[in-house]
Amino acid sequence: MTQLIECVPNFSEGSNMGIIKQITNEIESVEGVKLLNVDPGKATNRTVVTFVGTPDAVVKAAFLAIKKAGELIDMSKHKGEHPRMGATDVCPLIPISNITMEETAKYAVKLGMMVGEKLNLPIYLYENAQADKKRSNLSVIRAGEYEGFFKKIKLPDWKPDAGPAEYDVKRGATVIGARDFLVAYNVNLNTTSTRRANSIAFDVREAGRVMREGDKITGKIITNSDGSPKSIAGTLKSVKAIGWYIEEYGIAQISMNLTNINITSVHKAFDEVCKKAQERGIRVTGSELVGLIPLRSLLDAGKYFLKKQQRSIGVSEKELIKIAVKSMGLDELSPFKPEERIIDYQLRDKFDSKLVNMTLLDFADETASESPAPGGGSIAAYLGSLGASLATMVANLSSHKKGWDDRWEEFSNYAEKGQYFKDELNKLVDLDTKAFNKIMTAFGLPKATDEEKKIRTQAINDATKFAIEVPFKVMNLSNDSMQLIKAMAEIGNPNSVSDAGVAALCARSAVMGAYMNVRINCSGYDDKTFVAKIIEEGKKIEQSAMKLESEIISTVNTKIGI
Questions:
Q1: Where are the alpha helices (DSSP H) in 329-407?
Q2: What digits encode the pLDDT tens for the residues 360-385?
């Protein structure tokens, strides 16, 4: 399986997009990488670039980008709100798939050594790429920033990990490392005061604030017995934060790095800043993401805010994202485009969902064309999805039914299950067509020699097995969804009982249609033991679906009473 690493270099240029374009051109020139996002900030005078690819390709692209940034950016003339020390200020590598943090750290070290030696640039390693934990924290390394590093670099404790121990006037120095996925997140305030923004930042960030006598800002620092300052921890774990004023927007912000979103989520950080701001007479007006965010973070946020409203969380992915965006004001400063800001969407192959992204008319036309795919298998999967969708609709209507307010969570749970069935079956619509295409590809392989015949036979067998397994999944999911449909017919909103009946017909048809595809594909598969087992299990699923359909229709007819 392909190993993927994400790279998120931060360049000290946020206004001249011509310079940034030259840097990103270097990244895009490397085969095996994909540029995902370019996020410039004028007030910070900084651009966050995100790209992903195979490890060696990412290292090459990062090297070229750092080289080009050093040629184009002059740090002696740089001004900006964000802490910085180099033209390429920081360049983290993040494991994405099929690669460990330890392996990623080795690539970060490799990149650091290459840049230090070949570009003659001072390099500091950080986080998982740094063996000395006393200097693994980015903020500790960057303390003093560009202006202070001419002296700092001469200190024995701050000799670079690679490159010369001489500060570069034009390029500064660069920090390279390996870390977990980090979300850069800013919360907007209805104030222009950096001091008050910083007070809120100190309230929430894990490091908290230094303890002082009397006034929290100007009072004398309270120290421990060893002379080190005492501190009061903030309320949010795995959060770094500062307050600043953004002239571009005319507001102050709390700028946060959420270093572990499994510990402190975006929505938790947002709500906590709201709370601390309100305590100081300040309002949060919205927020903004810098760079990309995982899909799961926005889905969790959408569910969180719906639960606070006592509304069903069994809604579509699109609706959950919309709720998250509106609840946290992610579109206050600029439009929020999920397809550009969610990393999962950036990595998604557009051809994986070709059919389900069609209009209903286009899908029908494609099915009716002379092409054999999509065929019965894809249609069976879509029937199953429609059945699950109708059951989910009944659950959501029941959750919001007047007089049933005390049952909203019960039906929300049903709706969430329905969304799962719907989403999984939608994936199988395209996967069934892909399975058919794999068989056609296998049959088209050369067969002139014995070796070619062997390879072709194996490819046909592998593709045929896949073409059996996909509709078998459709059978299982559609049959399982009928328990949900049955519950909605029995206890759901009585005004929608006919919808549950139609859902049952769709689900049963999906099971039976998929079983036909299982059987016809089994006829071409060599492993007869596997075939016998699948056919037997399929028969049981079909009988279960027919029984459930009969029970559901009986309930529906009784309730309709005509």
A1: 338-341, 343-347, 360-368, 376-399
A2: 999 999 999 988 889 999 999 999 99
Catalytically active residues, by annotation: 82, 432
What is d(CA 233, CA 178) in angstroms, rounded to the nearest whole number?
26
Classified as helix, coil or strand, 18 is helix
CA torsion, ordered 91, 96, 102, 105, to nearest 10 deg: -10
**Two tokens, residue 24:** 């990103």
414 Cβ contact partners less than 8 Å away, ≥ 6 residues apart? 314, 391, 392, 395, 398, 484, 487, 488, 492
pLDDT of 213 reads 73
Q: Which two tokens stand for residue 185?
A: 């997140």
The pLDDT tens digits of the residues spanning 337-365 come to: 999 999 888 887 655 678 988 999 999 99
CB distance 306 to 313 below 8 Å: yes
Block residue for tokens 């397809």: 339
List the one residue out of 389, 378, 330 whose CA is nearest residue 353: 378
Cα(406)–Cα(396) distance, rounded to whole angstroms?
14
Q: What is the pTM of this model?
A: 0.82
How many whole angstroms separate alpha carbon 503 and alpha carbon 542? Answer: 16
Instruction: Using alpha carbons, select from 156, 147, 165, 100 the residue that is nearest to residue 128.
Output: 100
Q: Give 79-133 pLDDT, tens digit per residue.
A: 888 889 999 999 999 998 889 999 999 999 999 999 999 999 999 999 999 998 8
